[in-house]
Amino acid sequence: MSEYWNAYVDLIDGKPASIVLDMEVSQELDMEEYKNAFAVRLPLKKPNEDGLHAGAEADRLTIVEEELLEAAELKGYANVGKLTTDGNRDIFFYSPHEEEEELALIANRLYFLAGYEVEVFKLEETQSWDFYFEFLYPDSFQFQHMGNHEVLETLAMSGDDLEAPRRVEHFVLFQSEKTMKRFADSIQQEGFTIEEGSFEKDDEGNYVMCISRVDFVTYNAIDELTDFLVEISARYQGEYDGWETVVVIE
After folding, report:
1. What pLDDT is recorded for position 240?
2. What are phi and psi of 83, to 5 degrees?
3. Was domain 5-136 assigned CATH 3.30.70.1110?
4. Helix (H) or strand (E) holding 227
5. Taking the mean position of all CA atoms in its chain, how far away is CA 43?
6. Which CATH architecture has domain 140-245?
7. How is residue 192 annotated by DSSP?
8. Which residues contact 7 (CB under 8 A, 6 or more apart)?
9. What's the confidence (pLDDT) of residue 1?
10. What is the average per-residue pLDDT within 201-222?
11. 3-state helix vs strand vs coil in the chain, percent to 5
12. Once rounded to an integer, what is the mean pLDDT over residues 110-132?
C-alpha cells in the first residue's frame, strides 16, 4: 500500500456512497502479480440515515479493519480501497492468490469476534484492475472534489469558518492559444475576470490562464463551481488546474 490515500463521495444506484482509496497503489504493487480482486462485505448494524457508517460503530469497525488489513497483507492480500453505501461496508483487495479462502478465514475470525457476519468473494473482471480504475478511481470531477476538500481543510485549520464569500482564483491550462481565447470570451460572460499574466506559457509549454470571481467556498458551493469549470475547460480543450484563495477570519 502507498502513503497516498484519499476519499470522495458519490451516488451509487441513487444512494450516497463513501469511497476511500489508495491513489498510488498501482505504483507500489506489481500489477501483473497482484491481478486478482477480492471483497470483504459486512452489513452495518447501525448505519446513519444515508446508509453510511458513523459514530461508535465506525470507531469499532476501524479497529477491526486495522487488524484485518495487517493480517491480510501478511497473506498476500493488499488493500486498495473501501466503499460504504446502502448499509454495507466493502473492503477491497488485490492478490496473487486465485481464490479467497485465506482471506475469508481471516475476515470471518475477526468479524465473528466483533459480532458481525461477513461475505468474502472474488470480483470478476474483464481485465485485471478494471474494478480499481473503472469503478473505484475518481473521475475528473471527483478528483477535483478531493483537491477542493484538502484546500478547505487547510483554510479551516487557519481559523476560516468558510462562510464568507471571497475572491477565488482559478487556473486553466491550454495547448492552443486559439481555444484559450475562445474560452476567455466564454468565461467572462459568466462573471469571471481574466487576471494579468494570463495567456503566457509555463515551463512545460502550456498556456496558463488565471481567472477570478467572488464566490462562496463552502464544500457544496466550491464543488459545484469546480464541476462547472472542469466541464467548460474541457469544452474548449483546456484542463482545469485548481484554485486558491485567501484566509478570511471574521
Report:
1. 98
2. -135, 130
3. yes
4. helix 219-235
5. 23
6. 2-Layer Sandwich (3.30)
7. P
8. 18, 19, 20, 21, 146
9. 67
10. 93
11. 35, 30, 35
12. 95
Reference 241, options 208, 195, 203; nearest CA is 208
First to last CA, the chain: 41
pLDDT digits over 176-206, tens only? 999 999 999 999 999 999 998 777 788 888 9
d(CA 31, CA 54): 33
Each residue's pLDDT tens digit, 91-109? 999 999 999 999 999 999 9
Shared fold status for 5-136 and 140-245: yes
Task: Give the residue-averaged pLDDT of 102-124.
Answer: 96
Q: Which helix (H) or strand (E) holds 141?
A: helix 140-157
pLDDT in tens, 34-70: 999 999 999 999 999 999 988 999 999 999 999 999 9
Neighbouring C-beta atoms of residue 165, cutoff 10 Å: 13
Cβ(44)–Cβ(87) below 8 Å: yes
Which tens digits make up the pLDDT trace of 128-154? 999 999 999 999 999 999 999 999 999
Q: What is d(CA 224, CA 229) in angstroms, rounded to the nearest whole number?
A: 9
- The residue assigned the cell 464541476 is 227
Distance CA 159, CA 191 (A): 29
For the chain, which residues make up each domain, given as ranges?
A: 5-136, 140-245
Q: How many CB atoms lie within 10 A of CB 178?
A: 11
Task: Please tell me the predicted confidence (pLDDT) of residue 2.
Answer: 73
Output b/e per residue, 115-137; b: 16+ Cβ within 10 A: ebebebebbeeeeebebbeeebb
Distance CA 140, CA 36 (A): 26
